[in-house]
Amino acid sequence: MKKLVAYCIVLLFAGIQTGQAQSVTGRWKTFDDETGAAKSIVEIYEKNDKLYGKVVEILEKGKEDKTCEKCKGSKKDKPIKGLVIIEGLSKNDDTWEGGTILDPKNGKEYKCHINLENKDKLKVRGYIGFSLLGRTQYWTRVEK
């Protein structure tokens, strides 16, 4: 009986560790679609059961202080560093969806869904209308 209890405790902690490792929250490195060069670090976090992502670091030399010139509304001319670019995604099984993603380069907002390919690779899909009309990026996890 003691062995069974000990085994259950080990499985419980292993499950907790696996669940934490499989979270989309954390810091992610983004890449330029055209050049493949590292572009920024986005921190994805959960707030009130919704998912958000904020640019916390600009990796492109000379663009560290760039503002979102083409953005509309309250984000217009705000620094890209610190800008919330993913907003309001809700969990649906293994996917977060129903929110938006902002492309600071063109100032446009797109519908968005994200999911983990593996613990260190995030699939980010931005689209107009329905998911077939859009583009997919793969971001890699970065440790703090």
Automatic annotation (TrEMBL):
Segments forming domain DUF2147: 26-141
Pfam families, sorted: DUF2147
Signal peptide: 1-21
Swiss-Prot/TrEMBL keywords: Signal
Database matches in InterPro entries: DUF2147 (IPR019223)
Highest taxon of source: Bacteria
UniProt-recorded name of the protein: Uncharacterized protein (DUF2147 family)
